[in-house]
Amino acid sequence: MTDASEFWAFCNKDVVTDEDVDTFTALRAKTTGTEVSALGGYSDFVKGKMKEKSESEMFNWTAKQTYIALGNALATAAELGVDATPMEGFEADQYNEALGLKEQGYITCVLLALGKRHEEDSYQHAPKTRKSLENLFESK
């Protein structure tokens, strides 16, 4: 991780507030050229769904949204020929503190190292350990 050209911390909200939904709704209206008032039903629906979630359900949902962003970043990196390694198993609390995330309502979810692998990287040509397609997918 000390040699990566870029190192990204993907963060998720610990709680989605009505203000968060309003901010997103305004962005959606601007992006689509729609009046915010026309999205009122959508906004109210999302706010209602967020209020139905327990604390752990909210955390799990926002983390899953973060992983969607990670997947897009990984696909884009591959398309651009940039090596990328997602990472878990880190001390999230230390990242949260160092980046001042808790005060902003965020939690570090997953990390991503980006760059070009070193030519002398002994692991780049090592056989990869992957489950077989038969163990990953079931066809009926």
What does this structure look like?
5% of the residues are buried. It contains five helices and three strands. With 140 residues, the chain is an alpha+beta fold. The chain has a single domain (6-136), classed as NADH Oxidase, CATH 3.40.109. The chain has a three-stranded antiparallel beta sheet with strand order 1-3-2, sandwiched between helices.
Keywords, please?
3-stranded antiparallel β-sheet, NADH Oxidase, 3 strands, 5 helices, 140 residues, alpha+beta
Proportion in β-strands: 15-25%
Name of the CATH homologous superfamily = NADH Oxidase
Number of helical segments with 4 or more residues:
5
Stretches where pLDDT is under 50 for at least 5 consecutive residues are none
For the largest beta-sheet, the strand count, sense and barrel status come to: 3 strands, antiparallel
| Arithmetic mean of pLDDT | 92
Based on Cα principal axes, name the global outline. Answer: globular
Distance between the termini: 42 Å
Structurally, how many domains make up the residues? 1
The SS-based structural class is alpha+beta
What share of residues is helical?
40-55%
